[in-house]
Amino acid sequence: MKVKMLSWNPDNYVRETKLDLQRVPRNYDPTLHPFEVPREHVRALNATKLERVFAKPFLASLDGHRDGVNCLAKHPKNLATVLSGACNGEVRIWNLTQRNCIRTIQAHEGFVRGICTRFCGNSFFTVGDDKTVKQWKMDGPGYGEEEEPLHTILGKTVYTGIDHHWKEAVFASCGQQVDIWDEQRTNPICSMTWGFDSISSVKFNPVETFLLGSCASDRNIVLYDMRQATPLKKVILDMRTNTICWNPMEAFSFTAANEDYNLYTFDMRALDTPVMVHMDHVSAVLDVDYSPTGKEFVSASFDKSIRIFPVDKSQSREVYHTKRMQHVIRVKWTSNSKYIMCGSDEMNIRLWKANASEKLGVLTSREKAAKDYNQKLKEKFQHYPHIKRIARHRHLPKSIYSQIQEQRIMKEARRRKEVNHIKHSKPGSVPIVSEKKKHIVAVVK
Amino acid sequence: MNVNRVAESLLALSQQEELVDLPKNCPLSENEDEGDSDGERKHQKLLEAISSLDGKNRQKLAERSEASLKVSEFNVSSEGSGEKLVLADLLEPVKTSSTLATVKKQLNRVKSKKVVELPLNKEKIEQIHREVAFGKTSQVLSKWDPIVLKNQQAEQLAFPLGKEQPAIAAIEHALSGWKARTPLEQEIFNLLHKNKQPVTDPLLTPMEKASLRAMSLEEAKMHRAELQRARALQSYYEAKARREKKIKSKKYHKVMKKGKARKASKELEQLQKVNPTVALEELEKFENARMMERMSLKHQNSGKWAKSKAIMAKYDLEARQAMQEQLAKNKELTQKLQVASEIEEEEGGTEEVEELLVPHVVNEVQMNVDGPNPWMLRSCTSDTREPATQEDPEQLPEPATHEVSESEGERPVAEEEILLRDFEERRSLRKRSELNQDAEPAGIQETKDSSSQEVLSELRALSQKLKENHQSRKQKASSEGTVSQVQREEPAPEEEAPLLLQRPERVQTLEELEELGKEDCFQNKELPRPVLEGQQSERTPNNRPDAPEEKKEKEQLIDVQNLLTTQSPSVRSLAVPTTIEELEDEEERDQRQMIKEAFAGDDVIRNFLKEKREAVEASKPKDVDLTLPGWGDWGGVGLKPSTKKRCQFLKAPEGPPRKDKNLPNVIISEKRNIHAAAHQVQVLPYPFTHHRQFERTIQTPVGSTWNTQRAFQKLTTPKVVTKPGHIIKPIKAEDVGYRSSSRSELSVIQWNPKRITTRHNKELKKNSVG
């Protein structure tokens, strides 16, 4: 008798280790797997829904300050350490993993206007309303020692901001003028002025480190070159710019947070037209910070919310708010690009996830594959109306919501008026100004 | 010497004067109004000349009376001598002394030098400086353009960008500033020293070194690989043995055992040839087994199992077989083995034994295997089976005939109905042919005639048929047996006939049938046809809707579809004289004829109708094959899902009625589906330039259901990848292969705006442009 047996090659089904998945032979014949588009559409829809379901961005609130948080700084070497200065002159150092304050310093009398860390991470600088610049050690004082700054520089005027060079022992402060200091000296190595007005913030370019940008209250943004000790160019906008932030991946682009509810991304070589106008806030934008990947940035606003914008989009992709969060004064994106911190009026520092629905912690390879696939599907079907509607849906507090409606109506009315004006005047006599150019008053050489 | 010294000092002084004086002397403002002052001066001279005409030719010394612009700060007025102060005037006294020739030369050289320009004002200078600095900076920045572009277009960006080498300090460095303090540490150090553990690099004891030398890495690897392979093989075999042991099938084990026995015997044969002594030992083993069997008689019918089987053997065929097998086994075991000398005989014997041992079925196969062609085998078996299949039809037809005879009672009524239906069918057919012919308006009358003729002929044919039927019924009543016989033979050819009926050119076949009917050679041939037709219509559901439609067509007196083609029936009122009508008709006909001749090529109406028909056809939902192979039955290559299933899933949904159903001269496109529109993308998204491009991206699936693992991973790579817990630093020039801006450049330069002059200004401008 002949016995017929099914013979299997063990290579096709035996897994190498117990932890491996069982091997499943697959037939990729397309006729066996019909309806690929509808099936993927459904998957994309589900992924989008789940993204909204799991969108819980708020992580922690660090409380301890006894006045509004006026400035924030990241530690350059340590992800878990954050520094903050308050309106009562108090500086606190926080540990994010433990979510507690590890050190408190009464640094200044009056506001702590600015805080920045040295690139090595061993010390940090603060400026305050008491016309002083102080350098502090990052580690606390030893047992029995007093809490004292390493150096104190007494200035003639109030300093409103400070930033440290990314590579060298040089820092810049701003107030009446932009001063560049050597850490070892008590006098600035050079002071740069252009016009007479108080300068609210100064920022070093992280890529081409000799470049500086500052914004003054006479509505302008001024760029400086530290090597030649000269200002480079000035652009005057409609309203005051509160802060600027350089893109850490693109040497020439920076974003300005403006009082007219908008943010402007500039290419510093062509200041007459911003590359992008980001408009979603409904009140003055107070601070902006780039993601270390340079693809997105976060902005803090007076309208009690923070928003995340892609660099190349004019609309925000995310808005964060809480009932208790008041006017957000400072915002920072952590240097691993995963989290966002914001310091607000009501004395708290809040920690958010940069991707609202992201799962924290280590992912298994399968989880990772599923995440990537879902992301891809969402991207692929993002234009479909139902998916778009779900993905774009956000709950907003009533104040912001009603403001948005109101401003939409205003904008529409303005647009209509403009169109009518053009329509009823001699063709060519009324110039059509693009939205980008509308907000630029002048560029001064 | 003295004179020389004096001359040199004078020269130096004059040079100084020149240097200080010249720039002051010719500022732009004074140069500009030189003409004016010249005029004034001339005027004054004229006045003086007039005054000197009095006779007192006195020289008036230049004296300052009031503050004026013209006053030189050295109080050297040029007015006295007449013209501008020139260097040559000052050198006048020197001319006489020949010793000062060198000085003169030098002075002449000084004279030839150009005037230094005036510096710009501070604002202007600052602006120029800024512009130049900006130009330089933007030049420096533009080197980042390609990198930024590359990063923007990159499929994937992995952060942090630069590969950071983890700084691991060598152990020597770590140890250098450290001493063993605690007793534990000291003990450990002692141990290390005892084993001659070197503290510095390389960190290997002599023992380790020796072991390293003993076996090279490759050898060790090979050795390990071999061991692994052996282990793997062993585990495989173990697993296989375990699996085989688990198999419960007795048949399988039996077969296996037999196979083994056969193998053993073969080996024995070979052994006898190669190594007779070993073979003898083997034989002894067999002998032993035989003895054991003989002693125990294990395989005879004395066992418990054998007894039970013996009881069952009466009724059960399998039991009987099992018994036989056991006995065979017994025989085999107890048989005395022949010695090597009688190999050939033994071979025959073994074969016999085998034949005895193996069950019948296998026997057959083996016999067949002996035959030359294995394919003949199957045909043989099929031959054997054929009689059975042939028997079946013999059994079946009897009930069939019974049925036929039983159903004959109901026939007459049915037949009449069928005939009526036949008639209707023909009528509808005729109508259709009429429609076709209507397109040619000229031939209407003729067709009408022909159609009337047709009707007549049909009627005739039908009446004949009815007669025939009656006759046939009579015949049937008389000889039922013969009819049944005929019918029994008929079905095979008749099976094919219905296929013909379905074709569009049924007219011909009908005519043929009529002719056949007229011929009246074989009356009964007509009989089963309608029945079959009925069956057929039942069988094929596709056909079913045709019948009601045909009925509908009959009922509809005015076909909406044909409104365009059918001539509106001209209502003839009796009051109108016929002659005029005829005239008009003639005129019309002429006109029509002319138009027809003019537009002989294009038949617009028919084209339109055709177009509309096509549009309707295109918009009709097509049958979609939704059968999923492998669901509910076997699937695979060459296998088709069952007809039942195909019927179940081959459905086209009935769409809503067309909007232009009742509008004969309009085509309303129904391509846009309102229900689907809500789910569709309305505007082409940004990066796409054509809708087809977008569609293509949507239609290529991403999931692992449709793609291989590799492709799936490639398709779903995220755009930005970050390492958890790593700080992402800003991009550095060194990361992308650029030289970072040097330290010397970074030093802060103080600049003096006073130095810059208009000439510099021009140069700077050139730079800024370039």
TrEMBL record, chain A:
<dbReference type="InterPro" id="IPR015943">
    <property type="entry name" value="WD40/YVTN_repeat-like_dom_sf"/>
</dbReference>
<feature type="repeat" description="WD">
    <location>
        <begin position="321"/>
        <end position="362"/>
    </location>
</feature>
<comment type="function">
    <text>Part of the small subunit (SSU) processome, first precursor of the small eukaryotic ribosomal subunit. During the assembly of the SSU processome in the nucleolus, many ribosome biogenesis factors, an RNA chaperone and ribosomal proteins associate with the nascent pre-rRNA and work in concert to generate RNA folding, modifications, rearrangements and cleavage as well as targeted degradation of pre-ribosomal RNA by the RNA exosome. Participates in the 18S rRNA processing in growing oocytes, being essential for oocyte nonsurrounded nucleolus (NSN) to surrounded nucleolus (SN) transition.</text>
</comment>
<dbReference type="InterPro" id="IPR036322">
    <property type="entry name" value="WD40_repeat_dom_sf"/>
</dbReference>
<dbReference type="GO" id="GO:0032040">
    <property type="term" value="C:small-subunit processome"/>
</dbReference>
<dbReference type="InterPro" id="IPR007287">
    <property type="entry name" value="Sof1"/>
</dbReference>
<keyword id="KW-0690">Ribosome biogenesis</keyword>
<dbReference type="GO" id="GO:0000462">
    <property type="term" value="P:maturation of SSU-rRNA from tricistronic rRNA transcript (SSU-rRNA, 5.8S rRNA, LSU-rRNA)"/>
</dbReference>
<feature type="repeat" description="WD">
    <location>
        <begin position="278"/>
        <end position="319"/>
    </location>
</feature>
<keyword id="KW-0698">rRNA processing</keyword>
<comment type="subunit">
    <text>Part of the small subunit (SSU) processome, composed of more than 70 proteins and the RNA chaperone small nucleolar RNA (snoRNA) U3. Component of the DCX(DCAF13) E3 ubiquitin ligase complex, at least composed of CUL4 (CUL4A or CUL4B), DDB1, DCAF13 and RBX1. Interacts (via WD40 domain) with DDB1. Interacts with ESR1 and LATS1.</text>
</comment>
<keyword id="KW-0853">WD repeat</keyword>
<feature type="repeat" description="WD">
    <location>
        <begin position="62"/>
        <end position="104"/>
    </location>
</feature>
<keyword id="KW-0687">Ribonucleoprotein</keyword>
<dbReference type="Pfam" id="PF04158">
    <property type="entry name" value="Sof1"/>
</dbReference>
<dbReference type="InterPro" id="IPR001680">
    <property type="entry name" value="WD40_rpt"/>
</dbReference>
<feature type="domain" description="Sof1-like protein">
    <location>
        <begin position="354"/>
        <end position="440"/>
    </location>
</feature>
<keyword id="KW-0677">Repeat</keyword>
<dbReference type="GO" id="GO:0046697">
    <property type="term" value="P:decidualization"/>
</dbReference>
<comment type="pathway">
    <text>Protein modification; protein ubiquitination.</text>
</comment>
<comment type="similarity">
    <text>Belongs to the WD repeat DCAF13/WDSOF1 family.</text>
</comment>
<protein>
    <recommendedName>
        <fullName>DDB1- and CUL4-associated factor 13</fullName>
    </recommendedName>
</protein>
Automatic annotation (TrEMBL), chain B:
<dbReference type="GO" id="GO:0006364">
    <property type="term" value="P:rRNA processing"/>
</dbReference>
<dbReference type="InterPro" id="IPR006709">
    <property type="entry name" value="SSU_processome_Utp14"/>
</dbReference>
<feature type="compositionally biased region" description="Basic and acidic residues">
    <location>
        <begin position="400"/>
        <end position="435"/>
    </location>
</feature>
<feature type="region of interest" description="Disordered">
    <location>
        <begin position="22"/>
        <end position="45"/>
    </location>
</feature>
<dbReference type="Pfam" id="PF04615">
    <property type="entry name" value="Utp14"/>
</dbReference>
<keyword id="KW-0539">Nucleus</keyword>
<feature type="region of interest" description="Disordered">
    <location>
        <begin position="369"/>
        <end position="591"/>
    </location>
</feature>
<feature type="compositionally biased region" description="Polar residues">
    <location>
        <begin position="562"/>
        <end position="571"/>
    </location>
</feature>
<comment type="similarity">
    <text>Belongs to the UTP14 family.</text>
</comment>
<dbReference type="GO" id="GO:0032040">
    <property type="term" value="C:small-subunit processome"/>
</dbReference>
<feature type="compositionally biased region" description="Basic and acidic residues">
    <location>
        <begin position="503"/>
        <end position="528"/>
    </location>
</feature>
<feature type="compositionally biased region" description="Basic and acidic residues">
    <location>
        <begin position="546"/>
        <end position="557"/>
    </location>
</feature>
<feature type="compositionally biased region" description="Polar residues">
    <location>
        <begin position="534"/>
        <end position="543"/>
    </location>
</feature>
<keyword id="KW-0597">Phosphoprotein</keyword>
<protein>
    <submittedName>
        <fullName>UTP14C small subunit processome component</fullName>
    </submittedName>
</protein>
